[in-house]
């Protein structure tokens, strides 16, 4: 992609102001329209060291309304960011709907600095390329416009510029980039960068190579590209870009294998109270010790609870929480998203809740609401919930590859047991706060929910992130089964590390 570019382009002498002023006016107008329509623009600025990224952003900033624009300089991750996967800090910085985000360096630089071994690799690993493409595909599917610019200069121009700025105190990212000797140097990294650009040049998020030897010429090209892309995007609407979007699917288990998981659950399994108490005590003691190892080994743990209303999620979570030191875990009850959460991709509110290394997060309901309640109740479109299976698989695979122990539970009861528990809650003054009109309405749609649950389990069970269906007609049995599964998963992970 870089070989063919003529770097001699210049703005005709004496014409810069007459060219740039109408372009800037149009850029400002388009940003206002983006904000009015509640859309988001994500601008990615990458380029060779010394190519002028900061200078371009300084030129662009006065044109864009600062009330709707945020610049994110990406440098050395802080302690919290290091305790999460690489993409976590980019999810946390995504703009809300109607806003514009400018990434001064981005997930591309982070991939090169943090994941690429220049001593043993000639190219960015295919898995890293896939991660980037998946990440951008999710954002585009949610209606964001991604504009990616790479500022290109010759090795002679780079050498001259680096000599000029080597003593500058204002090179914020210099320390970060120096983690890899010679990174973003034209003479050394040309083939690697060119390969990365080609592999991530997607129809829905193409790269624009900016000839940046002349800063004025480069700035004009960026304004022209911004205006043209935003005009086209607004004219087509979200659908136009989504149609071009490529999907990168993870393999789920075959439908024939998982479609009957609910039917296979043996709901007759049970424990008596006398059997339950000593088993519970023993597992809780084991989990206390395992939590210490989780902390020592810097293992993040995510435990997801889904299930029928009145299936006993709360009771399982309480017994699980009793096992842990409260300094090292948090329970996240998930309900209807608030107004701020609705201004972001639906997965954003979960990414921002994921645990640091060595900590445990228990989700009481989760991101699976998109393919359950939101699907059945019509809170999202069919295209959105159909797409969500893939998006969830991508997110969970990313978590696991970053070292997270992910445990997913579906607490299963039959329709008769649910009715018995509903009636018990309604007639018991100490429990009737647990039952709502919404619970009864959901029960009327049992068959629809059962179909949604079966599809969820089938399409989001992967080799690394399987569902565990817990027979929960017996609360005692359900609680023990949950704790035993958590115990086994933690033991397995700790053994792998040691």
TrEMBL record:
<feature type="domain" description="Polyphosphate kinase-2-related">
    <location>
        <begin position="15"/>
        <end position="231"/>
    </location>
</feature>
<feature type="domain" description="Polyphosphate kinase-2-related">
    <location>
        <begin position="273"/>
        <end position="495"/>
    </location>
</feature>
<dbReference type="InterPro" id="IPR022488">
    <property type="entry name" value="PPK2-related"/>
</dbReference>
<dbReference type="Pfam" id="PF03976">
    <property type="entry name" value="PPK2"/>
</dbReference>
<dbReference type="GO" id="GO:0043751">
    <property type="term" value="F:polyphosphate:AMP phosphotransferase activity"/>
</dbReference>
<dbReference type="InterPro" id="IPR022489">
    <property type="entry name" value="PolyP_AMP_Tfrase"/>
</dbReference>
<dbReference type="GO" id="GO:0006797">
    <property type="term" value="P:polyphosphate metabolic process"/>
</dbReference>
<protein>
    <submittedName>
        <fullName>Polyphosphate:AMP phosphotransferase</fullName>
    </submittedName>
</protein>
